[in-house]
Amino acid sequence: MKADWRGDIVFSDSVAIFRGHVGPNKPHSHWASQLTIAVEGAVEFEAEDSGRRSSRAVYLSSKVRHQLFSGFVCSIYADPLSASRLETLGAGSTAGWAALSEDQLPAELAGLSASTELSPLLSSELLCVTPPSPPSSVEDRRFRRIARELAVQLRDGKEVDRNALARLVDLSPSRFSHWFVERSGIPFRSYKKWLKLRMAMDALLDGALPTSAAMAAGFSDLAHMSRAFSESFGLTYLDALHAWQHARRQ
């Protein structure tokens, strides 16, 4: 394990990609699904109670507890409400994670190297968020309306009111909470925290001071944001920021 996280980072609204050496991290889980591919050699990891393992790649579903130990890797994180071809990599696994061999990886990812341009991957067919087809059901439209409204309110610095969102889809607050989990597989409060972390990191990468970034994203203070970040990613927000700053200097 390297002394810190160093590498390249690119991201869009629904996908983030990190390529570099694994740095210090603790066992953690997050709402994004994750595909980690060894760029050189193998990736060493532990998922749930699997014990320490190594493989060409590992796919981790949302909320699977895991830790990376070593490797020069490329990790792709997908927003839990997005839909991409990455989801198929975990198909058939009852444990929520899957160690993958070379021939199980899509060709676009099996050939990743230290010099591969990462930005084009964000808009590739592989990672592109796919809208429902044929035309979505009434329930799909209701859910997409809530997801949009939630993101807009957080970006506008508003405190998200579950009761107000419930009224938008004609549900009681308690029924809304159950409905959100039924539609997404993710508790409403947890998904809201995930979006707030993304907002805070975006602000930090844009040059905001940590305290300002935490407040802009709706956290009560910097300590609150720091705890949430460490619990979700296994490393501190400063580790992530330093990796980004190092990548910008290359």
Brief synopsis:
The protein has 250 residues and is of the alpha+beta class.
Biggest pleated sheet: 7 strands, antiparallel
* CA-atom Rg in angstroms: 18 Å
Shape, principal axes of CA atoms: globular
Helical stretch tally: 9
Instruction: Tell me the CATH topology of the largest domain.
Output: Jelly Rolls
Multimerization state: single chain
Helical amount: 25-40%
Structural class by secondary-structure content: alpha+beta
Low-confidence stretches: 131-135
User: How many strand units?
Assistant: 7
CATH class of the largest domain: Mainly Beta
* CATH homologous superfamily classification of the largest domain: Jelly Rolls
Q: Please give the alpha-carbon distance between the first and last residues.
A: 21 Å
Q: Count structural domains.
A: 2
User: What is the N-to-C order of secondary-structure elements (H for helix, E for strand)?
Assistant: EEEEEEEHHHHHHHHH
